[in-house]
Structure formats: C-alpha cells, structure tokens
Design goal:
14% of the residues lie in helices and 50% in strands. It is mostly beta strands. β11 (182-189) and β12 (194-200) form a beta hairpin. It is globular.
C-alpha cells in the first residue's frame, strides 16, 4: 500500500512513518463511525484539498481499539452508476470491496470503497448505486506506440488492482498541501469510459500531454454517494454558460 501513497505525493518508507501518519489523521481528520457485527468501525478522513484524501480506519471491540487500515484516496467529482452490485466488507481490516456493473456497459468493476463509515446504511437498499471512481497509479509510464485502450484486472492478488492503457484526453495539476508534491490527475480513455488516474509527477518523469499514451498499474478506489453526499456536491450555476443555454435545457417539446 505504501506505493499507492506515492501516487498522491506521500512517502511512507517504514512502519514508523505510517504510524505517525495514522496518529495525525486520527487527531485531525473528519470522524465517522458505523456499528458492524459487535464492533465499531471508525473512519478518519484527512482532506488535503482538490479531492486528495488519507483514510485511517480504527476497529473497536470490548477488547480495545486498534488501527485496521490506513490508505490514500482521491474523491472524484465524476459520478457513475453501478447495477447490479455486491459489497464485501472485511471488518477487522477496515475495508470493503464494491463490485458492480457500470450502467450502459457490460463491464464489471471492483473498487475499494473508501467512505463506508460516512454513509447512511439505507443507501445499500437501492438496486443502483451512485459512485465516484478513480485510479491511484503505483506504476506508470508513457508508451511510444499507440495501444488499444483497456482496463483489465491484474494477477497481483488484490480484487481492485488493474492495468490500464489509454490516451490522455485531458489532465490537471494538483499540489499535495501536506507534502508539497506535484500530482497529475489525468483523464485516460480506457475504452468504456474516461477514467481519472492520479499519478505522482515524479513517477511520470515529464509533464503529460494530451494525446500521450499512458500505461499504468492502478489501485481502483471510490466513494458511494448517498442522497446527502449528492446534495453537498451542488456547486451552483456555471457562470461560463450563457443563461439562455440553462433555459434551453428546460425546454419541453409538445
């Protein structure tokens, strides 16, 4: 998992560095909790801005409290729907894997669910879930030759490890406010969608260009959006769009 932290610009060279990060996230992160099968699972989310996050998950029973997991995250603003879907929770490891079919495709994806502890459990009564989705790249390089776009599971052993190949259709630069590292968020055409891929600029070795072919190994992760989280995503009217265009969207043909 340390290599995935590199994707968002953090280096965890040893256990002591990880423990220090967990302590910082525990004391400063946003808190949420759920109760599962005789234990409390506490989520701590440290928001670093522009969607970059670090999650610490604590597992508490009558025997005590211990850190179950610490992982990097990126909260994309792009919303997808999956149906049907299946959720596998791993309580003592603080994890959950969500598997579902992307609406409008025949493709199933498996992602690490970051925000299980901040959700209203009633969201899981729905047949279709709204999710945000992004990949954290732990290995990446530019390809010199054009390759067919792909998103494929790897044999690495984790349910949400994928290899991707695709052209960069857009990108933006972010700064990790904790480490000062430069981060690239690239829109990569992987065939059935443009997937946001988070890459440490140092790992790429050069600033990306639109049209470049990116090959990467990614850790696919995301967030489920319940009604409350969907409502908080509203950011107002885009002032770059003319008012007449807003009204045209409401026009009904009789």
């Amino acid at each position: 998992m340390g290599e995935c932290f590199e994707a968002i610009g953090l280096s965890l060279p040893n256990t002591a560095a990880r423990d220090q990060l967990v302590e910082y996230v525990d004391t400063t992160g946003t808190r949420s909790s759920i109760y599962r099968r005789g234990a409390f699972i506490h989520g701590r989310c440290l928001r670093l801005g522009d969607g970059l996050e670090v999650w610490a998950v604590l597992y508490e029973t009558s025997k005590g409290l211990f850190c179950a997991d610490c992982r990097p995250g990126f909260r994309s603003k792009r919303v997808y729907s999956v149906s049907p879907w299946e959720l596998a929770e791993i309580d003592e490891e603080g994890g959950a894997i969500l598997t579902g079919r992307l609406n409008g495709t025949t493709t199933n994806v498996a992602l690490e669910l970051q925000n299980l502890t901040e959700l209203d459990s009633r969201v899981f009564e729905q047949s279709s879930l709204n999710i945000s989705l992004a990949g954290l790249a732990y290995q990446c390089r530019f390809a010199k030759q054009t390759k067919a776009p792909r998103l494929a599971l790897t044999s690495r052993g984790s349910e949400n490890d994928y290899s991707i190949t695709g052209s960069i259709v857009d990108f933006r630069m972010l700064r990790n406010r904790l480490s000062g590292g430069d981060i690239v968020v690239a829109d990569v055409d992987v065939g059935m969608m443009n997937l946001e891929v988070v890459v440490n600029l140092d790992d790429l070795g050069d600033r990306p260009k639109v049209g470049s072919i990116l090959r990467a190994s990614i850790w696919l992760q995301g967030h489920v959006l319940d009604e409350r989280l969907l409502n908080t995503r509203y950011e107002g009217v885009d002032r770059e769009i003319a008012s007449a265009q807003h009204w045209s969207m409401l026009k009904r043909e009789n």
